[in-house]
Hints:
There is one protein chain. With 381 residues, this protein is of the alpha/beta class. The protein has helices spanning 4-13, 28-37, 49-63, 76-85, 112-127, 139-156, 186-196, 209-220, 238-248, 260-265, 268-276, 306-312, 325-336, 363-380; strands at 19-21, 43-45, 68-72, 96-101, 132-135, 159-164, 202-205, 228-230, 254-259, 281-287, 290-291, 297-298, 317-322, 342-347. The protein folds into 2 domains: 4-164, Rossmann fold; 186-380, 3-Layer(aba) Sandwich (Rossmann fold), CATH 3.40.50. Strands 2-1-3-4-6-5 form a 6-stranded parallel β-sheet, with helices on both faces. Strand 3, helix 4 and strand 4 (96-101) form a beta-alpha-beta unit. Helix 7 (186-196) crosses helix 8 and helix 7 (186-196) packs parallel to helix 13 (325-336). The radius of gyration is 21 Å and the shape is elongated.
Amino acid sequence: MIDPARFFDALATEGVQFVAGVPDSLLKEACRYVDAALPRERHVIAANEGGAVALAAGHHLATGAVPLVYLQNSGIGNAVNPLLSLVDPEVYAIPLVLLIGWRGEPGVKDEPQHVKQGRVTPAMLDAMEIPYRVLDGDEAAGLDAVRWAVGRARERGGPTALLARKGAFAKAGLPGDESASLPLTREAAIERVVTALQPGTTVVATTGMIARELYEFRRRAGLDGSRDFLTVGSMGHASQIALGIASARPAHEVACLDGDGAALMHLGGLATIGVTGPRNFLHVVLNNGAHDSVGGQPTAGFAIDLPGVARACGYAVVAGPVEEAHEVTEAVQALQAVAGPAFLEVRVARGARSDLGRPKEPPVENVQRFVTHLREEAASA
């Protein structure tokens, strides 16, 4: 496997001074290393992948150096616009290197939401005319690929890519997170939120741990999960899915369980919710200040005023941050008792159970049950 320290040393030797990106589980060790090794002004964890490309472009414009942008292949979609209309050789001709985690690689078992994305990733890079090489864990070949990627980016005046297979990077050899824990786990907070919701509330849960923990709570409690939409992909879009449902069913209560990283990724969604003004909408952001599903790298969640942002975006009622279990229950009940849109920030500890499961049913089966429930409920109203 490739030692992250040697990988980034090779990049530095080639003149790469700036790194930006959105964390990925396959790149976890590389992300941990660069976050520890580089000062804040040289490494930025971006809200979304398109923003990371734009940050990198700005760095190149100011310095002339070739930057690196890291991302999961599911984030290519967020980056397509700046890749093709900003840094492309036929536009501003800005050289940069993409380090892409290859989730869903054909022949490698992965979750359903990654299978299609993994299969078409090479074709997407080909369609965008971005030259790439695959990192398979051979360190010598990987370091040679670094030299190729930087040199080719300079030569063509545009992006190149390194596509990292599962297991390509070795452990970074860094100590674990020693930050103080908050009193409430995310899983316990989800249980508190869901239990306090008005009966019959539809719940849309964001991708990653939140959807998985909601699913496990329903199963453990023997509760019907047909009113839950578990967003297994499409990071950052759960609030808009929930808004679409709330707008179509104005007499029906809808709650979105969001994460800080997901909410920040497409923060403009809060403005859309505020301007649309659904009275039946509750938006709960479970904020642990980290990208928990892909390695625990920090977000800006604890550094900004999320309730203040929601208030400025036009939410009718806002609460939080809350940290204690009883505060969660009281806040949810109070917010659902008034006309929304309503917003609640719940601060929770990082981490999840090591034995946390995943939905046993495929996404298409879950959505069929969900849609059937919604339509039956609408018919009986």
